[in-house]
């Protein structure tokens, strides 16, 4: 059995947002929809440091669905649209079953990783991204899929492919020889909202 996961090195992320753009393009996401975000950790606005000169601090936090081992969203979905693949650990939403009730959004302890798509609209009249990217349906909730369509054909998630800082590591968390396991080994790690008890599959390296 495989348990896919990702590690993100916070010391290598410099907030360029390439991961967010790569994800948006690869998945042909509608206007104003992001599965991947990078939040500024510092001052009151983007690229504003905290503290006073010369003791200022500024860092970035890449943010996406955490593909939890114990996903809170799974427990509250009334239609069975949210599922966890026991063979890969990937948490998905079936747009054919989703009724857009937003129960998963309210239950998720990671605010902002899910989006209710009311009516998909696009700035361009042409489809961009991967040929097998899942379609987007109005009145449904969507989120990061770990680029399952790419994984199924032996590739890695789009956000990892294009990260210029090489801040992301991907692979099977249960395989000690995988890139992600080697990246985590011996490093200080943290999880987002660990107290929620969802056991995320996204590790942050400090």
Features:
206 residues, alpha+beta, Alpha-Beta Plaits, 4-stranded mixed β-sheet, two-stranded antiparallel ribbon, 6 helices
How would you characterize the overall build of this protein?
- With 206 residues, this protein is α+β, with helices and mostly antiparallel strands.
- The chain has a single domain (4-205), classed as Alpha-Beta Plaits (2-Layer Sandwich), CATH 3.30.70.20.
- 17% of the residues lie in helices and 23% in strands.
- The chain contains six helices and twelve strands.
- It has helices at 18-26, 72-76, 103-107, 148-152, 158-161, 179-184; strands at 4-9, 37-41, 50-52, 55-57, 59-63, 82-84, 91-93, 114-117, 140-143, 168-172, 189-190, 202-205.
- The longest helix is centred in the N-terminal third of the chain and has 9 residues, at 18-26.
- The two termini are 28 Å apart.
Summarize model confidence as the mean pLDDT: 95
Q: What's the overall geometry?
A: globular
Tell me which CATH architecture applies here: 2-Layer Sandwich
Number of DSSP strand runs: 12
Strand residues, percent: 15-25%
Q: What would you call the structural class?
A: alpha+beta
Low-confidence stretches: none
Distance between the termini: 28 Å
Give the oligomer, counting copies of the same chain as homo and different chains as hetero: single chain
Short description:
The chain is α+β, with helices and mostly antiparallel strands and 206 residues long. It has helices at 18-26, 72-76, 103-107, 148-152, 158-161, 179-184; strands at residues 4-9, 37-41, 50-52, 55-57, 59-63, 82-84, 91-93, 114-117, 140-143, 168-172, 189-190, 202-205.
